[in-house]
Design brief:
The protein is α+β, with helices and mostly antiparallel strands. 45% of the residues lie in helices and 13% in strands. Helix 3 packs across helix 12.
């Protein structure tokens, strides 16, 4: 398996780019005044590594290659993930809707308030059907959950991003009120490690994912800089339970959130 936390797992063929490719990189990437790795990476973006034959051929020939990735969520019952996997929302009249409705009933929300929330949920599901109803979103390095608050924010409330956005559409301060606040204080903020085949990653992300490995190799081998991965993607379906590798609570999550005024003294 490809594991972005362990570069020794990167396929050797993604380092065997040949002399012509290397000459092109050295010709087009300037090291003048370059002091940080990202200054190299920005130039590699202009070269469109994800469209190179090195990347496109690898993707075509390795659709069954497994990759270790990570997903953030606030979890009430970890056993449900081990039994059912990570189940996508599914849209209107789906298992996802049933789960959200049960969650809102369980925290004590009145029926009319639940319907108000779902007016916004439906809008978001219909607006972004593939992304919001059929996909599991993920990131590549476990330590991203601690260094990137855009990532750990996915574990801030039960019900996930769509429910949070729907409540914000009603009132941006609603999360501070009971019973809505329970979505933010119940359960465990967690990172779920799972494996996914390259072919089960959405096609818009496959080449970009493999291009990250090539850019890592180029940045280190040709220019001597370390490289940091800052990339997210999504699957095209649910994650079955047998693909989950581990589930662990995010350490010191309250302290992570209390850096921000919106959550000081909140918990």
């Amino acid at each position: 398996m490809i594991d972005f936390d362990n570069p020794t797992t990167f396929p050797v063929e993604l380092r065997n780019w040949g002399s012509e490719f290397e000459k092109m990189i050295l010709r087009r990437v300037s090291t003048d005044k370059v002091e940080e790795w990202w200054q190299i990476e920005h130039q590699l973006q202009d070269i469109r590594i994800d469209e190179s034959m090195l990347v496109t051929d690898f993707v075509k020939e390795n659709m069954d290659k497994e990759i270790v990735v990570y997903h953030c969520a606030r979890i009430l019952d970890e056993n449900e993930y081990w039994k059912q996997g990570i189940v996508t929302a599914g849209g209107k009249d789906s298992i996802g809707e049933k789960r959200l409705r049960k969650l809102l009933v369980d925290i004590g929300l009145d029926a009319d308030k639940i319907e108000e929330v779902f007016l916004h949920v439906y809008h978001l599901w219909n607006r972004d059907k593939q992304s919001r109803t059929k996909s599991v979103h993920f990131f590549f390095e476990k330590n991203q959950v601690y260094k990137d608050d855009r990532i750990n924010h996915f574990a801030i409330n039960l019900g996930g991003e769509i429910l949070r956005w729907s409540l914000e559409a009603i009132d941006k301060e609603l999360y501070k009120e009971e019973p809505y606040k329970r979505l933010w204080i119940l359960g465990n903020p967690s990172v779920i490690t799972f494996k996914v085949k390259l072919g089960d990653i959405h096609e818009v992300h496959r080449n970009s994912l493999i291009a990250e490995i090539v850019k890592y190799n180029i940045t280190k081998a040709l220019f001597g800089f370390d490289y940091e991965f800052d990339f997210t993607g999504m699957t095209v379906r649910d994650v079955p339970p047998q693909n989950i590798l581990s589930i662990e609570e995010i350490k010191n999550y309250i302290q992570i959130q209390e850096k921000y005024s919106d959550y000081q003294g909140f918990y």
